Amino acid sequence: MTTISIDNLKKEYPGQVVLERVNLELTEKAFCSIVGASGCGKSTFLRILLGQENQTSGRITIDGAPLPVDPGPDRGIVFQRYSVFPHLTATENVAFGLETERAPLLGRLFGTPRKAALDEARAYLSAVGLDHAADQYPAELSGGMQQRLAIAQALVKRPKVLLLDEPFGALDPGIRTDMHDLITKLWDENDMTVFMVTHDLEEGFKLGTRLLVFDKVRIDPDEPGAFGATITYDLPLENKNNNELKDIQNLDRKKKD
Amino acid sequence: MHKRRLINRHPSRASAVWLAALPFVLVAAAYLIGSDMRLDANPNDKLLPSLNKIGDTIYRLAFTPDKRSGAYLFWIDTGASLLRLGAGMAIATLGGLAIGIAAGLIPYARAALSPFIAVLSMIPPLAVLPILFIVFGLGEGAKVVLIVFGVMPFFMRDMQLWVQSLPGEQLIKAQTLGASSWQVALRVVLPQTMPRLLDSVRLSLGPAWLFLIAAEAIASTEGLGYRIFLVRRYMSMDVILPYVVWITLLAFVMDFILSWISRKAFPWSKLGSA
């Protein structure tokens, strides 16, 4: 069980506050959907959790320890695109995470240890339904299959936190539904907290156990960069009913008017 | 039915072969006719020697020992030139690859090296050839260094730009899979530069030959470029022409082999982007 605590997080670029007063406590195993308008800082929030960027001030702890300043194996990531290695086959892509750990100097295993790593990798491939594509290169896979591969690649490190940055945004609607079933199943089976950024409110509602809405509450018309976005709604979604979704959609609509 | 527009009409396989051969045949025919006409007017003409004369010369240089040194000059020249070219290209490729990857991947290395490489690549290599002869003497060193100096800046810049063009997502992903900076360089970046590096080597072979022949022409005792410039004094076109054809053939074969390696060794690079 992973606990995550975010205390008064702030991210500021020169002349532009992106995030401010972000607070979050996660003590249960959660699937957090993060939604909000474009430019509301939801991707910045994810990049900070990832370690791709660091916060200006505030504290983030995972299981009581401060968040590392670099991306690391405790936090997996699936981007919308480009998160698999084009020069490795599907199996090699998944085995990569095992090789970095077991071969510090060359990052590459040979002989029997390599065979063992590839076998392990194939088990992960079959968990995401890619058995038949084990020896294919990413460019030979469809968009949905590439995302399955990217997920398998991340799972091999058994991360405490899995970060998904609009992972299904580039996929066809039918494929997207399959991917929803897959990610829900994997979240059920693994002990990990998921943060998923999406621009699709329905998707966030469907998958999440918790819905985080990012928005700006304070706006200074003379100085648009003065205030940043924060978490405006933090809704538990354990007992989902469609009235709740409608409520949120109404909120969204009211804001636009 | 109307014929399709010119830009939409494609030759068949057979006609493509004929079309490819056509310019070669035309040039050869023009040479033979020109040679015949000049030799008719003056049997001692040296400018366009007959094929017989060229054949005799090749036989003398390649398959009979030289009267003075006892060596087979054609092969001595070829060996010497290929050794210099190979050494120069090997040093330039490996150096350019290492520095290019460092400058492309590590922001501190980029800050320190990028402007220096940009300036270095603007120095005309032939202008520093005298310096190389002074510093490295007239032996092999100066000739190899000229090739290195001539093509390595291109490798460094090309590799740097190529590494910088890799999607940042890949580098982040690798780190979340536990890779250190070193492992990212070794397993994510290096293999992806290989097909591009081979292409760069192919493109650099032309300039590399240029620098080699220039260095050999000025100070050498053997080599393809040395021979051409030596016999120029006697207007020995019967030596110069086959040497030029031989150099072209060598360059063509190298290009072909590199392109073949690139196709066979990196099948993923021809699949399009992931």
Which secondary structure elements does this structure contain, and how are they paired or packed?
The complex is a heterodimer of chains A (257) and B (274).
Chain A: E1 4-13, E2 16-26, E3 31-36, H1 42-50, E4 57-62, E5 65-66, E6 75-78, H2 90-102, H3 111-127, H4 143-155, E7 161-165, H5 173-189, E8 193-197, H6 201-207, E9 210-216, E10 229-236, H7 242-256
Parallel strand pairs in A: 3-8, 3-9, 6-7, 7-8
Antiparallel strand pairs in A: 1-2, 1-4, 4-5, 9-10
Helix pairs in contact in A: 2-3, 2-4, 3-4
Chain B: H1 13-41, H2 51-63, H3 73-105, H4 107-120, H5 129-136, H6 140-164, H7 168-176, H8 181-218, H9 224-231, H10 237-265
Helix pairs in contact in B: 2-10, 3-4, 3-6, 3-8, 3-9, 5-6, 6-8, 8-9, 8-10, 9-10
Summarize the structure.
The complex is a heterodimer of chains A (257) and B (274). Chain A is α/β, with parallel strands linked by helices.
Oligomer: heterodimer
**What portion of residues of chain B belong to β-strands?**
under 5%
Low-confidence spans of chain A: none
Low-confidence parts of chain B = none
CATH class of the largest domain in chain A: Alpha Beta
Give the number of domains of chain B.
Answer: 2
Number of helices of chain B: 10
Alpha-carbon distance between the two ends of chain A: 42 Å
The CATH superfamily of the largest domain in chain B is: MetI-like
Question: What is the domain tally of chain A?
Answer: 2
What is the CATH topology assignment of the largest domain in chain A? Rossmann fold
| Total of helices of chain A | 7
Q: Outline the biggest β-sheet of chain B.
A: none
Order of helices and strands of chain B: HHHHHHHHHH
Shape of chain B: globular
Question: What's the β-strand tally of chain A?
Answer: 10
CATH architecture of the largest domain in chain A: 3-Layer(aba) Sandwich
Task: Note down, in words, how this protein is organized.
- The complex is a heterodimer of chains A (257) and B (274).
- With 257 residues, chain A is of the alpha/beta class.
- In chain A, helix 2 packs across helix 3 and helix 2 packs parallel to helix 4.
- Chain A has two domains: 172 residues, P-loop containing nucleotide triphosphate hydrolases (Rossmann fold, 3-Layer(aba) Sandwich); 74 residues, no CATH class.
- Chain A is globular and about 65 Å long.
- With 274 residues, chain B is an all-alpha fold.
- Chain B folds into two domains: 43 residues, no CATH class; 210 residues, MetI-like (MetI-like fold), CATH 1.10.3720.
- In chain B, 75% of the residues lie in helices and 0% in strands.
- Chain B has ten helices and no strands.
- The radius of gyration of chain B is 24 Å and the shape is globular.
- The interface between A and B is medium-sized, with 40 and 27 residues.
